[in-house]
Amino acid sequence: MADSTLEPFHESHGVPVVLRATGLTKIYPAVTGKAGAEVVLFRELDLTIRSGEIVAIVGESGTGKSTLLHLLAALDRPTAGAIVCGDADVTRFTAAEAARYRNRDVGYVWQFHYLLPEFTAQENVAMPLLARGMGRPAALDRAAEWLGRVGLGGRLENRSGELSGGEQQRVSLARALVTEPRLLLADEPTGDLDNRTAETVFGLLEQLHRDHGLTSLLVTHNLEFANRCDRVLRLRNGSLEEASA
Ligand SMILES: Nc1ncnc2c1ncn2[C@@H]1O[C@H](COP(=O)(O)OP(=O)(O)OP(=O)(O)O)[C@@H](O)[C@H]1O
Predict the structure, then answer these.
(1) Sorted alphabetically, which Pfam families does this protein's record hold (predicted)?
(2) Ligand 1 site, residue 32, Cβ cutoff 6 A
(3) Domains, the chain, with CATH or none
(4) Under a CB-based contact definition with an 8 Å cutoff, are residues 143 and 178 in contact?
């Protein structure tokens, strides 16, 4: 059942909880005037993400993994249920509150990098800081620092077209983390990369967990990577089960 009375800084197994979803349900209604039933993606789904962990979500195509990440990022609304991150229920946000949440509390990386081609790597990474009102010199400094952490300290001035696929994805990882969000949401971040480059990007994610106490939720079809995460959850038949990959 949805519980909107969660305390802000509750704990689970002695570890602070970063995000808790309860009773999460997503149903697409039948289209009026057309044959066909409603689409139930998931019903009464519960999910707890604890500080510092890296959690993998696996499941067959079309089971709703990306939709779940969109709900957690406040890019979509559930049919029912609550998503508590920090001290607020994300599902009740106004558009302005959702935008602020996406800028401050969550970072996300998608399968495609979505870098702005007319800007340099450093400017792309600085963008979320500029959007929140940080001055340009400070934002560029912070961006350079994060590009150094993802191994691209020598590529600050390159535009996305001058970078390899793996480098582009590392820039998008730096852009997601430059605001130091509570939670990183990653939707198949290695899905568009060859095996060796995918290993570099996933290895980097593991290193950032070790070095910076990152917390992340990762959707992946790569079962080897899923097995290297702290927990694996499988989305199947509308529910989320603890699983081994
Ligand atoms: N507006 C809509 N009305 C009805 N069904 C929809 C609508 N939008 C999305 N869907 C369905 O929701 C399902 C879940 O899509 P989603 O992208 O979340 O799955 P996924 O598990 O991430 O898949 P993949 O692994 O292929 O990326 C799909 O079957 C899609 O057709």
Answers:
(1) ABC_tran
(2) no
(3) 52-76+94-243 (3.40.50.300)
(4) yes
